[in-house]
Amino acid sequence: MKGWALLGIVAAVVIGALLPLQALVNARLGALTQGALYASFVSFLVGTCLLGLVLLVTRTPFLPAVPVGALPAWIWVGGAIGAVFVFAATWLVPTLGAGAMICLVVLGQVVSSLVLDHFGVLGTARPADFVRVLGALLVIVGAALVVRPWQPG
Question: pTM, whole model, 2 decimals?
């Protein structure tokens, strides 16, 4: 495995490890303030300010080379999905717990990713072969074992 690939794997695992903490911090912020929507807004505001600072420090041009109006309308969906995720995580963690919420999110990501990869949505098609589908089934089993929907509250 090449060094950059290994670094990418480590970075993905570290980021994944931080997501439950983000959800817990945001949920606590919501509990101490005006609720999940307010906490989600603050989370995005802090993140936007941090990224703005990084843009300044790295001297990355603020405006893209292509006029913003020339970009397809669907290109803005990523920000909306991020906002929905942060809000939903902030709202759901107090009810489901961080472990269950993250497992269910990962389950949705794996299933959706297999479908999107299979059909090559916005990228190269990567067929959902037997081994990849088996991996997704194992994620389903793992999520069920963590969430335990058969147990009462």
Answer: 0.83
Q: Is the pLDDT of residue 140 over 70?
A: yes
E-strand ranges in 1-153 read none
Would you list the domain boundaries of the chain?
1-65+73-96, 97-153
pLDDT at residue 4, rounded to an integer:
85
What is the Cα–Cα distance from 85 to 95, expressed in whole angstroms? 15
Alpha carbon 26 to chain centroid distance?
Answer: 14
Token representation of residue 78: 């990523």
Tell me, what's the pLDDT at 51? Answer: 95
Structure tokens at 106: 């990962």
Which among 25, 61, 65 is positioned nearest to 42, based on CA atoms? 25
Q: Are 109 and 34 in contact (CB under 8 A)?
A: no
Q: In the numeric block, which tokens belong to residue 139? A: 């994620």
Count of CA atoms in the C-beta half-sphere (13 A) of 138: 6
Nearest-angstrom CA–CA distance, 136 and 144 = 12
Location of structure tokens 């990355």: 60
Q: Which tens digits make up the pLDDT trace of 37-80?
A: 999 999 999 999 999 999 999 999 888 888 888 999 999 999 99
